[in-house]
Design brief:
Elements lengths: L14 H6 L7 H8 L5 E5 L4 H17 L2 E8 L9 H5 L2 H26 L3 E7 L3 H11 L4 E5 L5 H7 L2 H8 L4 E4 L12
Helix pairs in contact: 3-5, 6-8
């Protein structure tokens, strides 16, 4: 038997390598057995959006299925005197800090509740950083996370260029694997076992 067709594959094998070497078709149970043991600490960034909450739920379900712990992170930008964000223009630095802390706590409490209900160990973290994508990457490294699970809003065209995407920046700059959760109209297809 060809070593490449042995299941499960070596942990360092990529999905593309597995598919190109004649490995068996990926069923959901095969995928989970391959992932089991690979991921022990999952970082889940959240911005509090509905899609981000879907990524939190997905990441926690994945963590439960493989016995991993999670760290849920939210990143806010520091107060700037010259800003375009309405809350920064109308607030004092103290009001802004209080507002950001309240919002971050709400996002993190929601994630902690999902983890608690699922029986998954969960740490929450709120950071301030000018570049949220860099805070995500730095946190994954300092917390020894082996997977980042995050949402992508699926923006295209000019809105993607103008608004940018923290997910795209994390994908571009991270050396840690990133699993992207898409909007609900993007469905995953698994072959039956």
């Amino acid at each position: 038997m060809n070593k490449a067709s042995v299941w499960p594959p070596e942990p360092q094998a990529s999905l593309i390598q597995i598919m190109m070497t004649g490995a068996p078709a990926l069923s959901f149970s095969n995928l989970l057995s391959w992932v089991d043991g690979m991921h022990r600490h999952i970082l889940i960034p959240t911005d509090g959006s509905a899609l981000s909450q879907t990524a939190v739920e997905y990441g926690i379900a994945l963590a439960k299925s493989v016995g991993a712990k999670v760290t849920v992170l939210t990143v806010s930008t520091p107060f700037h005197t010259f800003a375009l964000e309405p809350v920064m223009v109308t607030d004092t630095p103290e009001q802004y800090a209080k507002h950001v802390a309240t919002v971050a706590s709400k996002y993190l409490d929601a994630a902690k509740e999902v983890a608690s209900t699922s029986g998954v160990s969960c740490e929450t973290l709120h950071l301030e950083h000018d570049h949220p994508y860099q805070a995500i990457i730095d946190t994954a490294a300092t917390k020894s996370c082996d997977l980042i699970v995050m949402a992508s809003h699926g923006r295209r065209g000019i809105s993607a260029i103008v608004l940018g995407s923290e997910t795209t920046k994390v994908l571009t700059h991270s050396s840690i694997p990133v699993l992207v959760v898409r909007p609900p109209n993007h469905s995953l297809v698994f072959l039956p076992s």
